Amino acid sequence: FRPEVHFWCFGIFFDGTWQNDSNNSVPQLDIIENKNVTAHDLINFAVSALDTDGDVLVYFAAGLPEGAVFSEQTFTWTPEQAGTYSVTFFASDYKSLAYKTIQIAVSDQQ
User: Structure pTM?
Assistant: First the structure.
């Protein structure tokens, strides 16, 4: 089972959880706010979650804009073009899944 493949089929994400084991606690993503950045400025932030069962968590992202990287729980990107970009972040213990979609608003350089 690969949750990133399973959930990508829906095509759009918001906030939520998914669970296939009622005895398992769903991971809880820490708050991730929408972001505002100016084109050509670096944006980077960490994504974290808590699993009250103590399960090891894996993290991944969907909808990364061109040039963006999500590695070791850290999103890093230097946007080249103004616009609004949606990115969904996931935390999974392979029994359940928490996810959050944020908007990254990129404005033109001033």
Answer: 0.82
